[in-house]
Design brief:
alpha+beta, single chain, 21% helix, five-stranded antiparallel sheet, Peptide Deformylase
Length: 168
């Protein structure tokens, strides 16, 4: 089918995504397509609204220790989650974020430093995930997409928003 990233300005990015009552084959296929597209689009995560589907589904995929060239142990971090929500959060981190739907732009966004996420996996089983640091930031960013919130909405100091261009 081939998915395309929806860009800022598309009204689907500002809609509250619809909950998924039961994971079926169509949701599993969508999750797999989203998972497979991430390396091609240069992202670590994507929410269904970013591919034009206003459903509550997120996919995360990146290599742990990717920035650390000396680390021999690189394992893939991946999640495919339905109806995810942050049920607990504490601490604060402020860090640079960008977004596939707002290419070339980054800004500093405050987020919880540690969170607990409740969701459903692709086998319709409830899951809880504790995450901190970078992974907590990724979860919060993607879950925001499900509520029509972009990272630019969360920037406290607008001076940190800047254009860094793209790799093309």
């Amino acid at each position: 089918m081939g998915l395309d990233i929806v860009l800022e300005g598309d009204p689907r990015l500002r809609q509250k995504a619809v909950g998924i009552k039961r994971v079926d084959e169509s949701i599993r296929l969508l999750a797999e397509e989203m998972y497979n597209m991430l390396p091609d689009v240069g992202g670590v995560a994507v929410a269904a609204p970013q591919v034009g589907v206003t459903r509550r589904l997120i996919v995360i995929r990146y290599m742990e220790n990717e920035e650390d060239d000396d680390s021999e142990e690189k394992r893939e971090i991946s999640y495919r989650l339905v109806n995810p929500e942050v049920i607990r959060g504490h601490g604060e981190q402020v860090g640079l974020e960008g977004c596939l739907s707002i290419p070339g732009w980054v800004g500093e966004v405050p987020r919880f430093d540690a969170i607990t996420v409740k969701a459903i996996d692709l086998n319709n089983r409830p899951v809880r995930i504790k995450a901190s640091g970078y992974l907590a930031r990724v979860f919060q960013h993607e879950i925001d997409h499900l509520d029509g919130i972009l990272f630019t909405d969360r920037i406290v100091d607008r001076e940190t928003l800047r254009y860094v261009g793209d790799d093309d």
